[in-house]
Description:
Layout: H1 24-33, H2 38-49, H3 54-57, H4 62-65, E1 73-77, E2 84-88, H5 91-103, E3 114-115, E4 118-119, H6 122-135, H7 145-157, H8 180-184
Antiparallel strand pairs: 1-2, 3-4
Amino acid sequence: MKKGQNHNHPKKGSTIKVEPIKSKKDIQTIKKLLADKPMDLALFTIGINTNLRASDLLRIRVKQVKDLNLNDEIVLNEKKTKKERRINLNKACIEAIQGLLASKEYADKDYLFMGQRGVLTVPTVNAKVKTWCRAINLKGNYGSHTLRKSWGYHQRVSFVDGRDKVSQKWSFKNEPPGRGSEFSGMGEDFNSESNRRPA
């Protein structure tokens, strides 16, 4: 194959769309798959229960989450937008974090998601998500952004009834107009946050 002829690599300027995990059963199956892997379980659980980008998930430090109670906030400055975000973590997230912190020693300054070579990278998260989805025979294209899109999909489909479709707004902040349907996988643009989560 000649240089530049890798057909599996996107062309310059193009994008590869990944899909949300639409089935709650599949979400629970992945969580069972990761039950004995505290870091992966915490990464997956926080990822699908917030609308944080993978790059922001990986910036969470132990001191921000070690003493959290249900619905306590963590404050992050988004890497992409440089804007402050306040995120409430639900019971599933708190329990996953507690399980991770109990699994090994951490210092307050440590990043929460640390591998053998240091803090995880977005490509590593991308590979992990692909592996998890492949392990339960999910068909489609999945990657690190699948976590965030799954949050949005379930906000749109599972928690918003027909009467609220107009008033409910999507919480993928600072995205260009018209991109909501790409993120949600549903075809409507929603722009505000809800505490109701898929898992």
